[in-house]
């Protein structure tokens, strides 16, 4: 496992180099300016389209605009909003939230651009079952230049599909299942693998019905889970309303200046705040990955840009609203820089076990509070830490039973060229969603237990059903319709594998999901650059016709029940 983690770290260092993040940010700014700040249109015209005033049952497509956005949001609003934000603050500090906001804002323009292209080039040979996404964009656009280019286009599309499948299996599947298993085991003592089995059965029963069933389930599930989570988060913020101004000030300050070590937080540079904020925001809202355009391409419309304007709402809802609420809950309750869970009588002993390797001993836990398998970390002082710009490091450990039945922490080996200095504080390791759950618990005991457990299950199911569709469309492009059944079986199996104890810490989780997100960005961004002008021309033409009055609502908005169920577009 150590060798695998080293590979993940090396791969992430390439995929998530600072230069890559600046390229993504620059691309978002470019399309924001080029489109004339399309964020405004998403928040105004996009809402009107979403309400169903422009839906037409005779247009090509399978689901209405509301269901398409719900299906795409079910892939973005998920455990990235609960667990991903927690990871960003834990590793990058409060400043990471500022960069999540920036990604959310410029990401609205990026999302509009990539969905416009997917709608322009979607395959509507079967009008009731369209296929779209970056693989079709590059394949069909290059095919216009001759047979030789058609082959090149298919190969580039295939590369995107392979990267999409990697992200599907990691970020869209295993990350979700792992977090659900961790939260459920923490609060209810249910072995994580049982959660994985139940998830596999529930997800499998939905995805077998294809995009229409996914759209129907997402249309009901997404609004319900968003309202549930937002109401609880707002309740916490009302309780801690006096802290909100100071929190916003700390977020902005930490985005540009190093964040000091305090409590469980070992400190972080502005550069690492930028890194983790950008990475977790991109993982959460999927901007630039080309994944959600696959869901939007199923929308019933004859106007490609119309669905793209709706898609611009995705990053706003996902990042500016939901991620911010999670961050405020974690910060206002003090969970990100919490005090030690165990205060030892003295700092534990640390001895060399080889050249540059050290082992901590003699850490007995107080009785009647912890159970075998509980995860911890302690902070040691050693060589300079490039992440925190201090000499502080985290050393992880797990509770094990001793010969007499007492519990002690078995610490992992720590590497340092100099002898580390240990401390008497032991912190409980709360990876991902479990940190957010404990934050809610601090305000009202039991709130996190039930809210985050229920939200984790709902968010995970919604995310997994959408991502399964993204992977399904990739398989159809690569190997045809006959490959879908085998793919769906494998998807459900990996859901169980993720909960079988392979992943243990938030660092491993961050590295794994970073691979999936990173490779898709590398595949999709060049497509957006190559054809971005075409997307912008189509967008400006649509807005001009809208402003001139040549295009308007076709009818009064349908009832909410018809909109959610999709009956408004049934022939």
Structure write-up:
This protein has 571 residues and is of the alpha+beta class. The chain has two domains: 17-335 and 437-569, Amino acid/polyamine transporter I; 342-429. Helix content is 63%, strand content 8%. It is built from 20 helices and eight strands. Strands 1-8-4-5-6 form a five-stranded antiparallel sheet, with no helix packed on it. Strand 5 and strand 6 form a beta hairpin. Helix 6 runs parallel beside helix 12 (270-285) and helix 8 (147-188) packs across helix 9. The termini are far apart. 53% of the residues are buried. The model has no long low-confidence stretch (mean pLDDT 87).
Q: Can you give keywords for this protein?
A:
single chain, 571 residues, alpha+beta, 2 domains, three-stranded antiparallel beta sheet, 8 strands
Strand content: 5-15%
Distance between the termini: 54 Å
**Count of beta strands:** 8
In the CATH hierarchy, the third-tier topology of the largest domain is known as: Amino acid/polyamine transporter I
The amount of helix comes to 55-70%
Low-pLDDT runs: none
Helix- and strand-based class? alpha+beta
Q: What's the level 1 CATH class of the largest domain? A: Mainly Alpha
- Report the mean per-residue pLDDT as an integer: 87
How many individual domains? 2
Q: What shape does the CA trace take?
A: globular
What's the SSE pattern?
HHHHHHHHHHHHHHHEEEEEEEEHHHHH
Total DSSP helices? 20
